[in-house]
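Please fill in the sequence for the structure shown.

STRUCTURE ENCODING:
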């Protein structure tokens, strides 16, 4: 009997061989990602080093300018001297330092919540919290323009996930009205949408949550330290803190470190602490990172003028960019998205600005529905920095026919 030849198996690397877009942009001299910096900003400044060039940074999420603050750096160094560079274990076993407990208490107090839980990264926080709190028989109702970490948290959950059109409250109401009575429901939104720079309509979301018996989870990563009288984020800004059930935040923005946290009722935090695989099976946050956040909280509370400066600068830049003829997405946050809607033009705009010593963020699909040049403001930007950005953008915008 003749033996069949084995079928040729599909190569799992086939997709990688077929990915050529990055190389195409490199060959065209337009590839804008993974640019290398050789230093952070000097304390109180907004310029960084790229090799031997000084670059004006308008692409960082360091909204309050604390990543090079002398007090924050000193706190991190002191923690290394006392605890070493890592904890070498999970929080559940040998990885809990008194510093972690102190940080969680400080975060709960700062966010005006019963309890908080710290994770190793912001992405891990959404992944670990959402996949734990929403389970089989529950439904996650999420804004379509959600951060990738929220999406992955939804995918990792055994809950059913449904999405509503971005900030479309009529669509959200229709989705909620269609849910079964025995399904637990959790509405999940970004407080500030990281690429578009707009905010969730929390007052209306709260109204609909009450009407349909839903809980609310808000990712405040780009809002903490930025919005609200005390810097607690979008929920504080809109006066609905007591109606939001879980808030999530990251340390890599205003808190000048790396990591993330969720804050909520004590029983909710206890449940996540003992059931989240992303938390239980991960090594704990490095001591230096925890100490940096503690110091950042202290500075945020005693120096509200940083937040006011950030707001004033953002308002000025938005107004002036519109006056110059640029198309912006609506918003009032330090994230200012300039709509270009052409991938090649975005990259050209990025490199033209770089040639004048200014860094911005080129944002391409599928990260956003519009291709953007994303500007991020910092409290440490001066009026001169703002004028330099506007002058360069005007010249380049005219040259690329983006403005009349």
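FILLED IN BY: designer on duty
SEQUENCE:
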């Amino acid at each position: 009997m003749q033996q069949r030849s084995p079928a040729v198996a599909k190569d799992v690397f086939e997709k990688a061989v077929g990915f050529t877009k990055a190389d195409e942009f490199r060959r065209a001299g337009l590839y804008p990602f993974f640019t290398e910096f050789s230093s952070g900003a000097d304390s109180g400044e907004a310029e960084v080093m790229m090799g031997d060039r000084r670059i004006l940074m308008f692409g960082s999420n360091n909204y309050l300018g604390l990543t090079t603050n002398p007090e924050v750096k000193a706190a991190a160094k002191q923690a290394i001297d006392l605890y070493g560079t890592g904890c070498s274990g999970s929080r559940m076993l040998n990885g809990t330092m008194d510093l972690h407990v102190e940080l969680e208490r400080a975060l709960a107090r700062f966010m005006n919540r019963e309890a908080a839980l710290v994770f190793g990264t912001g992405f891990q926080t959404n992944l670990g919290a959402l996949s734990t709190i929403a389970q089989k028989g529950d439904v996650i109702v999420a804004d379509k323009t959600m951060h990738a970490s929220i999406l992955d948290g939804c995918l990792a959950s055994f809950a059913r996930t449904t999405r509503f059109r971005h900030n479309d409250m009529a669509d959200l109401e229709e989705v909620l009205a269609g849910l079964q009575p025995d399904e637990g429901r959790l509405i999940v939104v970004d407080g500030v949408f990281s690429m578009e720079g707009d905010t969730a309509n929390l007052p209306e979301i709260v109204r609909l949550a009450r009407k349909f018996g839903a809980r609310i989870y808000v990712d405040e990563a780009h809002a903490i330290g930025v919005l609200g009288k005390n810097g607690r984020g979008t929920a504080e800004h809109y006066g609905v803190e007591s109606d939001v059930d879980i808030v999530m935040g990251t340390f890599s923005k205003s808190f000048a470190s790396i990591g993330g946290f969720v804050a909520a009722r004590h029983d909710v935090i206890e449940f996540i602490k003992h059931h989240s695989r992303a938390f239980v099976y991960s090594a704990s946050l490095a001591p230096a990172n925890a100490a940096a956040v503690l110091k950042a909280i202290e500075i945020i509370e005693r120096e509200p003028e940083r937040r006011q400066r950030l707001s004033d600068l953002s308002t000025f830049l938005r107004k002036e960019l519109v006056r110059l003829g640029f198309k912006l997405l609506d918003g009032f946050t330090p994230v200012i998205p300039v709509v270009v809607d052409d991938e090649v033009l975005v990259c050209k705009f990025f490199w033209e600005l770089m040639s004048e010593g200014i860094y911005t963020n080129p944002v391409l699909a599928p990260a956003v529905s519009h291709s953007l040049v994303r500007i991020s403001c910092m409290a440490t930007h001066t009026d001169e920095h703002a004028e330099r950005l506007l002058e360069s953008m005007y010249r380049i915008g005219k040259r690329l026919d983006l403005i009349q």
